[in-house]
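User: Fold this; tokens only.

Assistant: Input:
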Amino acid sequence: MINLGERIRRDWNAPKNERVQSACGDAKLVVEFVARYFHSAEVSAVMRTALRQDNDFVEAFEMIHGTVDEFGGCLAAIGQAGHETNLVETLEKLADDLRQWLEEAVSAFVAVVDSRAVGQQRLATDRSNALRVATDVRSELSARRFVHQAERALGETRRVRDQTMELAGEFSAGKSSLHYDSYARSEFKTANRLRSAVVALLLGTALAVVALNIWLEELSLGAELLRLSVTIPIAVLAGYLVRESSKHRATAIWARELAIAMHTITTYIQPLDEAGVELRRVLGLRAFGSGADRVAASGDLGLYDDLADAVSKAEGILHRVNELLERRSKP
């Protein structure tokens, strides 16, 4: 047991893992009691003889000895395998066993000391010194018991907090998924309506051209102007609607992909630990960031610019038509 205390002071004086540090504190308390029992003048030879003859104390002491050996082996295994193993949990259970057996040993210790000193005035000093050892150990045990209770309460609080945050995250992700799914459906409907309007405009333009060709048989500048005045605005509007339809469809696809990601993110990242946290952060930036990954149309022209461009093209067409008419009018 003394060797374990030396190992803890040498190799485990300040372990990084708080759970290992707490367990080592319990083991050091046991080692301290054993050292004061065997190697100090506080427990006289008379009292030690009486203690060795008490079955309860001997049984508790033997259990402490066996548990200390297991504790030392587990501590050595943690030193080789690292703190991120199930061995830490085993070490904590062994520390709990050490505290339990130490409490029983101290109770038996006090009972034997009181019994041996009954009616023995000459043993009053021996009794007082021995009971001081028991009082000190009991005070330390009581303090460590409160510490462990506080640590368990804190751990339970953190566990409940993590579960609550996880449930809140799942609920929030589910609600956001429904929102983006609804938004995607709305954008798809808008895109389909615009596409239908384009089809109708193109069909109307074609019918208008056919009708004008039948109605205006002779080729003249006025006839061409009439045809252009009908077809160009419709064509410009159709082009604009096609572009708007494409933007709405791209936005719908973006929203649908985001809805699927939010719906499945919790299940997907659960086994990924730190990588899962990073994926959740990236998804959050995608959903609530500047929207840079969204298919934007910042370079798209508006209807006014489309019309201006179409008018410029129409002027060129009219110029060519006018030249054609002049050539035909010459003999």
